[in-house]
């Protein structure tokens, strides 16, 4: 685009949103373009902050006509470098679209604008004695629009599913400005293609989500948590089946910390105090949530007792008070906080069959050590849904070896028919490995959809593929 055309477009866009609706030059805050993955820090040509869907539509229509690339953003907490603008892009922020429009107790739904923070949605649901079950570390700053467009996962997927499973209706805007109004509360709606799913998890490349109708659940009134020391991954896998069978729908988390991570936490995260010795191969956090405090606690103890009789577990600590529960979760969350003590670490988010995970952990270590005998690594994750995170440090030059480490991890994932991304998405960081988990014909269909919905390629270009 010629400089004068760009000036005309920018003036037009400013006019569409009014003075509160944009920021430019030095007025754009770092938080609106700083990449949390440290990949880049490129200020956008303009930061647009529309106040409603009509403005989003007008913005996209104008950018479409001018072939101007646009990068939508939520709370900028993503871990695959998808939202921070690239050179020459205009950023589209939802920080002024933060309204909770309605909570409907009869359909158990909440209707919200895209810019509402996840934690605010959780609190609103809670104040109505209901639960919005999506939960992740960035809850205070991530927004529901970002959660939806990346199909975020988190700690309670085992019971409630990914973000994709927590949505009933969506309003989105296509690249050319067309508004797709799918905002309804119908849990059953088999009227052709489920169009909302095109916008969920497509990382802002097929359209921009402006509002959503979220599915709420009954608020559980009981919570019990245990930490189990387990030897051998086969026992972890059998413990999962045992817990699923015994606890049924009360099972709300099944998180596993490998011994290597447990030791890193003990050594490097002072505010997390590990409740048992570091002699076991695996540490499994099991959580139950239900609606009959006494019965649920009894059932939980019975199920764990059964696990111990079957010799699946070596040691069990049951947390029955809020502070003990918090302690155990703090240890689990500390897995993501060992970096300052260790040094630069690469983080991986992959998915594979539960029965391949024991082999995966051993093989990752073997292949890494073949190249870097002193490598420090840790595995942990949401094993109940087949999702493992890996943190890796291979020495002071860890940054330089990024691609080689990627290749080791993703090659192994490909061999095991896993997914190179479980809950973080593809963004820019994983796009060169997309073909390790998606076939040629799948990628061709993805590209055909992109071509149909965004023929000029203005929406988050270069992300995903
Ligand atoms: Zn996770």
TrEMBL record:
Cofactor(s) needed: FAD
Gene3D superfamilies for this protein: 3.30.465.10, 3.30.70.2190, 3.30.70.2740, Uridine Diphospho-n-acetylenolpyruvylglucosamine Reductase, domain 2, Vanillyl-alcohol Oxidase, Chain A, domain 4
Protein name: FAD-binding oxidoreductase
FAD-binding PCMH-type domain residues: 40-219
GO molecular function terms attached to this record: FAD binding; oxidoreductase activity
GO biological process, one term: respiratory electron transport chain
Superkingdom to which the source organism belongs: Bacteria
Similarity annotation: Belongs to the FAD-binding oxidoreductase/transferase type 4 family.
Stored Pfam families: FAD-oxidase_C (PF02913), FAD_binding_4 (PF01565)
Key words, A-Z: FAD, Flavoprotein, Oxidoreductase
Organism: SAR86 cluster bacterium
InterPro entries named in the record: FAD-bd_oxidored_4_C, FAD-bd_PCMH, FAD-bd_PCMH-like_sf, FAD-bd_PCMH_sub1, FAD-bd_PCMH_sub2, FAD-linked_Oxase-like_C, FAD-oxidored/transferase_4, Oxid_FAD_bind_N
Xref: PROSITE patterns: FAD_PCMH
